[in-house]
Amino acid sequence: MAKKKPKQVLLEATVSLMGEKGYFGTGLSEVLSLSQAPKGSLYYYFPQGKNQLMIEAIQLAGTQVNDVLRQMLVPQNDLKVALQQIFSFFAQQLLSSDFKKSCPVATVAAESASLAEEVRLACEQVYASWHTSIQQFLEQKGLSNTLAEKYARFSLNLIEGNLLMSRVFKDTKHLEQGLEVLLEVMGSKE
């Protein structure tokens, strides 16, 4: 396997730290330590500093999650199966980190009122791309554009809110109950 480039290693370390510590808790020295990248590479690849690093890490995290969503939101999957897979994916992320890490975009987005506008916009763009992926799947399942848009927004809000509650309570029951509610609302209850 090819060795990862320093920029990729720095971004992956930042995504990992963001999921646990958010923007303010993620220090550049921690990124360097976790990535084991030379200090000079941080300033070479991210000459605009922490904001640039965080924005690119937000974009990477967004792409990674969107890729997972698109794998689960394939037309062959029925709605219930797709939603179960998505909620299970997020529950597994929490469990594998002993509830220390959550959605890296959400942890930064929660701080976005205090951050530079370009960081907030990066979070917004990621959420918009996830919303679009969910909405397109729902439209493929026969929902009208209007209803698919509403359900996609509700789904995303429900997932992110239940991720937060599951992390706080160190229990995935919030995600499980969120899935039940979403299936009931969408009329896919067993």
What would you note in describing this structure?
The protein has 190 residues and is mostly helical. It has a domain at 55-185: Tetracycline Repressor, domain 2 (Orthogonal Bundle). It contains 9 helices and no strands. Helix 5 packs parallel to helix 8 (145-169), helix 7 crosses helix 8 (145-169) and helix 8 (145-169) packs antiparallel against helix 9 (173-185). The longest helix is centred in the C-terminal third of the chain and has 25 residues, at 145-169. It starts with 5 loop residues before the first helix and ends in a 5-residue tail after the last helix. The model has no long low-confidence stretch (mean pLDDT 94).
CATH class of the domain at 55-185: Mainly Alpha
Helix content: over 70%
- Overall mean confidence score, pLDDT: 94
What is the percentage of strand-forming residues?
under 5%
CATH architecture tag of the domain at 55-185: Orthogonal Bundle
Q: CATH homologous superfamily of the domain at 55-185, by name?
A: Tetracycline Repressor, domain 2
Report the strand count: 0
- The CATH topology of the domain at 55-185 turns out to be Tetracycline Repressor, domain 2
Can you tell me the residue ranges where pLDDT is under 50 for at least 5 consecutive residues?
none
Number of helices: 9
**Structural class by sheet pairing and helices:** mainly alpha
Radius of gyration: 17 Å
State the end-to-end CA separation: 44 Å
Q: Could you say which overall geometry the principal axes of the C-alpha atoms support?
A: elongated
Main pleated sheet:
none
What sequence of helices (H) and strands (E) makes up the elements?
A: HHHHHHHHH
